[in-house]
Design goal:
By secondary structure, the protein is an alpha/beta fold. Helices cover 38% and strands 16% of the residues.
């Protein structure tokens, strides 16, 4: 299974090289067939020049320009249109996600899971230098989402997730243009009946560059997509659910799922 690592990047010249190099080294060491696809999201710095400088030492690296308006969601959706793998994993450009966790995601996908979600707030996870104001808002938002959707998952807003190609195709159309895409993707996958699992992941505060996330700009956008998916869940009468559900993967020791269709699984 070839894994495409999609990295949306807006003015990330200070961190993109270390992020790409670390991913390439780890994925190659664990013999994960892969590509690293950087989506240049209307950069006004020399992020593209940095990528060009390291291209010769990173043969699995390529990049495309976001041809839609600027925004995290637009950039990820651009990556979804251009990736070549059997599955895609969204990784942040600031080196906050651990490349070793990408390897774990690949292994879970290879077991047969259709989606792999990370949690930074379960046993085995590491969280370092997370701003406390964002942490409080994160915990509140995820608690509300879990209650509304009755989910045994506590990190829905985490952007670091992986999906098989057929899942990405089955989640269309995607409406979120900004960081609210991080909520739309997993919630749609869950209510449309794709098999998913959760693993502990590590998160490290950025050492370089500036975060592009703006809390004030995202509140109403998160609310919009949550309400949108809630309407689909409770009022669409299953019109958007996948047409063919399969049994769970054989390797499911220690897991938990709803009976029957393998929709909700927590490892």
């Amino acid at each position: 299974m070839k894994l495409s690592v999609i990295i949306p990047a807006h003015n990330e010249r200070d961190s993109i090289a270390s992020t790409v190099r670390a991913l390439a080294v780890i994925l190659s060491a664990y013999e994960v067939p892969h590509e690293i696809l950087v989506v240049l999201d209307h950069c006004t710095d020399d992020t593209a020049s940095v990528l060009a400088a390291i291209a010769s030492e990173t043969p699995t690296l390529r990049w495309v320009a976001n041809d839609e308006p600027a925004g995290f969601g637009f950039a990820v959706r651009c990556g979804f249109r251009h990736f070549s793998g059997d599955a895609a994993c969204v990784v942040m450009a600031d080196a906050s996600d651990d490349p070793r966790d990408v390897v774990m995601y690949h292994r879970k996908l290879a077991e047969g899971w259709e989606c792999v979600f990370g949690s930074r707030f379960i046993a085995g996870a590491t969280l370092r230098d997370y701003p406390w104001t964002k942490l409080l808002l994160n915990r509140f938002a995820n608690r509300v989402i879990a209650l509304l959707f009755r989910l045994p998952y506590n990190d829905v807003t985490n952007a670091f997730k992986a999906f098989r190609r057929e899942v990405i195709e089955g989640l269309q159309p995607l409406l979120s243009n900004h960081f609210n895409l991080t909520v739309e993707l997993p919630l749609k996958a869950i209510i449309r009946g794709y098999r998913w699992t959760v693993v502990p992941t590590n998160w490290y505060g950025r050492d370089q560059g500036v975060s592009k996330f703006r809390v004030k700009e995202m509140g109403s956008r998160y609310l919009f997509v949550i309400l949108y998916v809630l309407i689909e869940k409770y009022f669409s009468r299953g019109d958007y659910r996948r047409t063919a559900l399969h049994s769970e993967p054989a390797e499911n020791s220690g897991g938990r799922s709803e009976t029957g269709d393998g929709r909700r699984v927590l490892r």
